[in-house]
Structures are given as C-alpha cells and as structure tokens.
Design goal:
The protein has 599 residues and is of the alpha/beta class. The protein is built from 11 helices and 29 strands. It binds alpha-D-glucopyranose. Residues 89, 91-92, 240-241, 282, 297, 304 line the site of alpha-D-glucopyranose.
Length: 599
C-alpha cells in the first residue's frame, strides 16, 4: 500500500474519522459506536465543504448507491408486440433485432400512452427506502421519445400523449424537494425515429436525405440544452452508445453539460474516451478491485424497460450482494427499475429494493463513504470495506460452526464487534483472525462484523482458502504464462450481458496461484472453465506434489473436479495448473476452486 491513491484514501479516512467524531459529539453520542454518517442533506453539504468537493461528487463518490429508471414509450408495450412476447431488453422492442416495428407504427403508440398512475413522490420514496442517493432516468432512449416537454421535437410525453405532463419535470421537482439527486440518461447517437439519427431513418417525410450532423443540430444539441437548463441542479448526464460518433460530437456534448451544469458529471458512454467516470459493462462486477472512478449497473428484471413476460426478478439478496461487491471493488452502484405502462414499479421489484434498503439502513457503514476492500477481492463468506479506519465485513455465508476465519490480518486488532451490537472474542492463528461469532446470524440478510485495527490497517491480500467454505479464486489472482487474461462478455438473452475474466489455455500455458491456507488437510481442487472438449490437466503443489486427470467439457462456465491435493503445513503454497493435452486453445479458464475435505 504505497502509491498515491492509497495515500489519498488513507488521508480521506483520517479526515473522515475526525468528521465522524465531530458529528458524534454534535449528536451527543458516546462510545461504543459512533453515529454513522448516512449522507443526510446536511452531512452531504458538510462533507462537500470540508473536502472541497461538489455535492454531485459526494453523491457519486460517497453515496455509492443510485436508482436507474428506464421509462419511455416502450414501457407502454411492456415487451410485447402484436400478441408476441420479445425477451430481454424491452426498451429495444422497436429495433429490428426485436419486433422490428416500423417508425410510423411505433410513433403512433404515443397517442395512447397514458402512465396516469405515475407518482413522482412515490418513486422518490422508493429510492429513499432503498437507501439510494440519486436517481438517473431515461430522458430520451434510443427510440427517440422524450420524457420531458421539448421545444426541439414534439415526439415527447407532454405534447404527443394524452398524459400531457412533463414527467421528467415532476420527478426532478420531487427529487429536489426530497433531498435526492437527479440526473438524466440521454441517447445521443442512436435515435430510431428522428431523421438522421443513428440507426434511424435516413430521410425526412419528403424523402430528402438527412445527415447525422443535421440530426445532431436539430434534436440532440437542443434537447441536451433543455435537460441541462430546465430542471435545476443535476447530478449527471448519462450518455449511452456513442457507436461511431466522432470525437467532436462527444466534446460538444461534454461542453454543453459543463457550461450549464459546472458540477454535473458526464458518463464515459459519451464516447471517445471522454467523461468523468467509467461505466462498466451492463451487469458487470469485477472480481478484483478496480482503480479509478467507476460505476456498476444492474437490473431488477432481465432487461431495463419493463417487460410483462419477464418474471425473473432479482431477489433482495441479489440486490444486496451486487451492491456490496460493487462498493467493495471500488465502484458506485446503480440499480434499475422499469415502471410498467401505468407508471408504477411492480411490487416484485419495489419490495426487493426496499428489503435490501432496510439492510443498508441497519448497516450504513458498509455502504456510505465506504472505501474498497483491503483484500482486493471478495472473500469466501462475503466481502469487506473500510470506513473511518475500521473494517466492515459483510458475511453472506454465516459460519454454522461459530467460527469466522478472516485471512491476511497483519495488524493487532483492538476490538471486534457485531455491527451495532456486542463485542466478540477472537484469536490469531498466524495472520488468520479467528472470530467467535454467534451460531445464529445476527441479521436476517447478511451479518456485519466491525474490526477495529491497532494502528494503520495492514492486510495481506494473497488469495486465501477458507478452512470450511468452498473458495473460488479468480484467474485475475494468478500469474499466467503463455496466455493473456482478458475480460470476455457475452449475452445470455437479448441485452442480458455476462462478463468473465479468463485465460485461453492450451498445451504449454501455465497459471500459477499463491494461496494462503490456514488448515492442513486434503483439499478438493476444481477448475472453473468452459471448453468445447475434454482435456487432461495437471496440478502441481509447491513444485513437488502433482496430480493429473482429464476434465470434462461444458459450454458454460462450471466447476470441473481435478482431484484432491494434500496440504501438510499451514501458510502460503503455490498451485500451478497446466493443460497437458489439447492445442486448440478452446479452454477459457476462469479460476480455481478449493474446498477442504472435512475428515
Ligand atoms: C445498453 C442498452 C440500453 C440500456 C443500457 C443501460 O447500452 O442499449 O438499452 O439503456 O445498456 O446500460
């Protein structure tokens, strides 16, 4: 831990400890636990002033949790066209890869779009209950329909529908009144209904060719001016899918946002390497800490816009786990809801967000102002963050034998307690901290344990194998020779992205992991990969003990048993994996999995 970023985060922690202490005194609190900062409006102002940041920066960097709303004319169709359901991204229903709806037929739908049940306060209330700190809503998606009153184009919710209200205006007003940040998604390149828009009609009503340049001047620029001037201070503009749009266009859009809203951020999807932060791929949570300023995004259904055929809702546990892991990897998290055609968020999605939000309210330190995990990756039972110099462990897999093993703790530990509760006994076994936890998890969703270290936190981030739980160690923690580790993405359903880092192994390539093992014994070793063929593999432990076997094929990533290895001494060991037959490069190795055999 010696680079500038680390120094910066240490400084930040120190300032924050002082701030937390001051707030604790102000609130008349005393030990044992300081009052948590939950980023109330006053706290946000105070932090912004102390750290010389804008409110927008504090919401993004410290709020760590936001609501994404995909709401547009597509919401009226709810993933169905002429009686047929189209699965995946319902906001793409018009597109030729989905229902392929002709422009005039799609635009005609506006005449009967009436989300009369939409209630801005209700949706802002849901974001608050969920523990989210700002909302980003689609002001215009790829289909070109604006959800605000626009003078630049009357294909908008106020002018073209019986609803007749400026929905974005209502939401922005409610956000400002309720102390929630607001920002807008805007599809700057793709516009499937405006002449000249990216992937849209290339001629106007008279059959005259229209260029992207003309579209950009006539619709995109004036609408971006509108959304950055009409709705008060905004959090950010979330541009999307720049495709082949030139750098000049991206620059111009960034300049408009900064001219009208000097403190607002711009998403990286403005294109051409611009933007204030990076948005990762849809649904992507990296396996290892990722430096820089970034955001992870996910959905409550399969796609972004509401689909009535889609009953694959995300559980509260999924929402929570994705939030906690994103924050622990160093990002901020945005979870999407797609209101239905009436303007309501269906209870399956709303209740799951609320349930996860109740957890956030019980354990604010695990989310707000939380710094990334000092372990740099998740742990077998859950994940960790640092907040005001203390470590918060979120335990999804609560140990049933009453012992929680925490690897790589070089510090002496001052105290260990259940978050918001009693002190726990602990002992050290080498650098493993063994905590006596109650057999019953103290939280119905995920227990949180607070560690207070003696002095500056000093964690050994070597991949560690839990003595009880199955431990998957990703390829990013290995040294790989003869193959590159890449992040590959693929779609399960239309728009349902998955990402996984992997190394394409073949004969002669080697992946080596150093692992820290607390308890000697036999370990069941599995390889996590996908491959069209069966191959033979060898695992070598500490350069001496080898096992070989063939492992099966599978078209999806899964665990393939290679055999048991024996560990005689606790401590660090090197495990080397080689593919010993097959030169066709078809294996994508994603990780190693070790589970201690209970004998
Ligand atoms: C993709 C899709 C889009 C969705 C977005 C959210 O870019 O085109 O429909 O709005 O992801 O991240």
């Amino acid at each position: 831990m010696h680079n500038d970023t680390d120094n910066h985060s240490i400084m930040k922690s120190i300032t924050r400890s002082a701030l937390a202490a001051a707030m604790m005194l102000a609130a008349g609190c005393s030990a044992p636990q300081e009052k948590a900062i939950t980023l109330t409006q006053d706290e946000i102002q105070e932090i912004a002033a102390k750290e010389g940041k804008s409110v927008q920066d504090v919401l993004f960097d410290d709020g760590n949790y936001a609501m994404f709303i995909h709401f547009g004319l597509y919401s009226k169709l709810e993933g169905e066209w002429k009686g047929k359901a189209y699965y995946g991204n319902a906001e793409w229903i018009m597109n030729e890869n989905q229902a392929g709806i002709p422009v005039d037929e799609y635009m005609a739908e506006a005449a009967t779009f009436n989300p009369s049940e939409f209630n801005a306060d209700e949706i802002v209330g849901l974001a608050k209950d969920a523990g989210m700190k700002y909302i980003i809503i689609t002001s215009k998606h790829h289909e070109g329909f604006a959800m605000f009153k626009s003078d630049a184009c009357d294909f908008n919710i106020a002018d073209a529908t019986p609803f007749g209200r400026d929905l974005i205006g209502e939401l922005a007003e409610s956000c400002h009144r309720n102390g929630i940040g607001i920002g807008f998604y805007y599809s700057q390149f793709q516009d499937w209904t405006a002449p000249g828009g990216g992937r849209g009609p290339q001629t106007d009503a008279e059959g005259r060719p229209v260029s992207f340049e003309e579209y950009f001047r006539a619709k995109c620029v004036p609408q971006v001016e509108e959304i950055t001037t009409k709705y008060g201070d905004i959090e950010l503009i979330w541009f999307d899918t720049p495709a082949e749009m030139g750098a000049g266009y991206s620059r111009e859009l960034v300049d408009i946002v900064k001219k009208n809203q000097p403190n607002a951020l711009v998403s990286s999807r403005v294109g051409n390497g611009m933007g204030d932060y990076e948005t990762l791929g849809d649904m992507e949570v990296p396996a290892v800490n990722t430096p820089g300023r970034w955001e992870g995004i996910d959905v409550t259904q399969v796609g972004w816009g509401f689909s009535k055929a889609d009953h694959r809702f995300k559980t509260p546990e999924y929402v929570l786990k994705t939030l906690v892991s994103t924050v622990a990897r160093g990002g901020t998290f945005m979870m999407n809801v797609g209101p239905d055609k009436t303007g309501k968020v269906v209870p399956e999605a709303a209740d799951a967000l609320r349930k996860a939000g109740e957890w956030v309210k019980r354990h604010p330190r695990a989310i707000y102002m939380a710094e990334p995990s000092p372990w740099l990756h998740s742990l077998a039972w859950g994940d960790a963050v640092v907040n005001s110099g203390k470590v918060y462990l979120t335990i999804f897999d609560w140990p049933s034998d009453g012992k929680l093993y925490v690897p790589g703790v070089r510090n002496a530990i001052k105290s260990v307690r259940i978050d918001g509760g009693r002190k726990l006994k602990f002992s050290k076994e080498g650098s493993w901290l063994c905590i006596d936890v109650p057999v019953r998890c103290p939280d119905e969703m995920a227990g949180v344990v607070e560690l207070t270290p003696e002095g500056e936190l000093d964690i050994d981030s070597t991949a560690a194998v839990d003595p009880v739980l199955e431990t998957i160690i990703p390829i990013e923690s290995a040294k790989v020779e003869g193959a590159e580790v890449i992040r590959a993405g693929w779609m399960e359903n239309f728009g349902e992205w998955r990402t996984k880092a992997n190394a394409r192994m073949s004969e002669g390539t080697v992946a080596r992991w150093t692992v820290d093992i607390a308890k000697p014994g036999f370990y069941d070793l599995n390889l996590e990969y996908r491959s069209a063929d069966r191959h033979e593999w060898r695992a070598t432990v500490d350069g001496t003990q080898s096992i070989e076997h063939s492992c099966g094929s599978s078209s999806i990533y899964s665990l393939h048993p290679l055999g048991w290895i024996r560990i005689d001494e606790p401590g660090k060991h090197e495990i080397e994996i080689r593919q010993i037959t097959g030169a066709d490069n078809d294996v994508e190795l994603g990780g190693l999995c070790l589970t201690r055999v209970n004998m």
